[in-house]
Specification:
This protein is α+β, with helices and mostly antiparallel strands and 255 residues long. Helix content is 39%, strand content 22%. It has 3 domains: 62 residues, Sandwich (Immunoglobulin-like), CATH 2.60.40.60; 104 residues, Alpha-Beta Plaits (2-Layer Sandwich), CATH 3.30.70.3310; 32 residues. α2 runs antiparallel to α4.
Length: 255
């Protein structure tokens, strides 16, 4: 925006509020990932810029973000003693430093924390940056060569990162984690287990109900037989008036 003052100051936002996967720096317009774990393909983000004048004007554009997971054996993990949110916001600068000191093109595969809980994204002080490096011929650089260069340039890289994060930053190299099951696969497994447990529970309930009904029927028959036997045993007993019961009572019982 060529205007001066507040009329020229722009604030950026994501129109579709896709904050579960991406976020945007409202002052610079830089888009960065929050979490795209287990997802692939192209995401279409609608970004809006708004000036801060009295009559605020806006403009929108679509930003296409392609998530391309790699199964390369040449993945290297660089560990920084910084909070993941801070690293994600400055990932472009981190990439620039790595490319400058390694003298290769660096592709950021993923930025993640070792913490399992999502809330740890803002509390952990250890962040892993998974990278693949390409040479001038656009060929993957072997992981061992990347690790060797990272060790050689460790102090220089940390000096440049300190300028970005305004505090001392230490780096280390970690083994690339094995690919884990996608959230979709995990959800399918969990749902299958829950369904199986529900089915087993239902079958147990049905069996228990049938067994209880059978026992009640048996008890009822036993009770009826006991009452008939008692009636026969007391057939010739006196009634309330002291008279002897007749054979008509026996016929009634037999019927």
């Amino acid at each position: 925006d060529p205007d001066a003052g507040e009329n020229g100051r722009l604030l950026y936002s994501l129109v579709n509020h896709q904050s579960n996967e991406f976020d945007i720096d409202e002052n610079t317009g830089q888009v960065f990932t929050v979490s795209v774990a287990g997802k692939t393909g192209t995401f279409y983000l609608e970004v809006q810029a708004t000036d801060q004048g009295t009559s605020r004007l806006t403009a929108r554009t679509t930003v296409n973000v392609t998530v391309d997971p790699s199964s390369s054996n040449n993945i290297v993990v660089v560990v920084l003693n910084e909070m993941i949110n801070t690293v994600e916001r400055n990932i472009v600068e981190v990439k620039r430093v790595l490319e400058d000191k390694l003298a290769w093109n660096v592709y950021i595969v993923d930025v993640y924390s070792n913490e399992f809980e999502r809330k740890a994204r803002s509390s952990t002080d250890v962040t892993c940056v998974k990278i693949i490096t390409f040479d001038e011929a656009n060929q993957e650089v072997p992981a061992e060569d990347v690790k060797r260069k990272l060790r050689e340039q460790k102090s220089n890289i940390e000096i440049e990162l300190e300028k970005i994060f305004s505090r001392p930053v230490t780096t280390s190299i970690e083994a690339a984690p094995a690919d884990s099951a996608s959230p979709e696969l995990i959800a399918t497994i969990v749902l299958s287990v829950l369904l199986a447990c529900s089915l087993i529970g239902f079958l147990v309930y049905v069996a228990f109900t049938i067994e209880r009904k059978r026992k009640r029927e048996q008890q009822y028959l036993i009770k009826q037989r006991a009452e008939i036997a008692e009636g026969i045993d007391n057939l010739w007993a006196s009634d309330k008036n002291g008279s002897v019961k007749s054979l008509e009572k026996l016929e009634h019982i037999n019927n």
